[in-house]
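During data preparation, a discrete fold description was generated, and the record follows.
___
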Amino acid sequence: MYTLARILLLLPLFVASSAQALRAEGIEFFHGTWEEALALAQTEDKLIFVDAYTTWCGPCKRMAATVFTQSEVGNFFNEHFVCMKIDMEKEPGLNFQKKYPVRAYPTLYFIDGEGKAVHKGQGALPVKKLLDLGEKVLRKVDKSADYAKAYEAGDRDPQLVLSYVKALIRAGKPSGMVANEYLNAQKDLNTDFNLRFLLAATVEADTRIFDKLLAHREGAVAVSSAAEVDEVIRKACQKTVGKAIEYDSPELVDEAKDKMNRHLPTEAGAFAYRADMDYARSSKDAGRYLKACRGYVKKVVKSNAAELHTVAQDLHRSFGSESAALNQAEKYAKQAAENGGLAEYYATYASILLDNEKKSEALAMAQKSLDLAKGDPRQEAVANQLIRKIERAG
């Protein structure tokens, strides 16, 4: 455990780290010592996410270049974890391995503020699987039952209620009833604590809590930052789109798009395209998806290779049996491969070409993927397997 004096000594470093995280497009990795990371994790009630890597590891480089840099990964990991990259062939990595064994690269550790390993995974993960892993780990450390016991016994200490709401949200459990009960009992929502409570409790855009936050936006910015308030708005609107998909409610998609347009207008266009794509994918509406996808690439993605690759993969997986969608996926995959030059991009391009009955072109692109994958055993295996599949195809 850390004394109050120790935490106060480290506080300027913590604040600087938090501010940097808000500005980051992807994961903002903490650059302090391991002891400072443990103290920060305790202070912010977070786990530490450790990317245990080496400089020569191909999958490590790929994750660093194409996964950790993604905004959705940064938004999630910066909010929920203290993130560190540690080179396992240098200090402090050599010392780190004495307590936390590393046998493959990358190894992904999740460690609590007391130094206890909560989860350990091995191997590079794509964006969605890394986000799924992060959510799984958060559910694994659910502390809401501890707060629920005190709350149900009548304890309404504001800090306890706030901690309870945060724990419910981290665990993916409904928090609105507890948050609303507290907020409805307050005569003044403009106190620093209540404004921070609003920021913490705002989960979805289609709620009274969201509307209350926006009614007190100026005060919320004053106790945090414009970037933090914008991020809360952004995530709440995204959550409402997820709810629209879960309950098959296009009206909620429209509400989320409308609230983004009113409260984050500079991002509303890109958000609307993504929301339409997500909803169309869930409802298996190829026409709507393709229309939104084309607008998204033209207006937002442009020549970004990583994003083009993701769009091509989504099109292929979701609507690969539709000729128009497959042709569009082929076009985006080609642009991603030529712009990005990564083995996995060429593998995706080859796979789409094969499904589009272009066997000779598919084989050439799979061979290029294999050439680029040298030194990366996993990607080499993917390319070789793809080549065999193409050669067996009629």
Notes: The two ends are 65 Å apart (CA to CA).
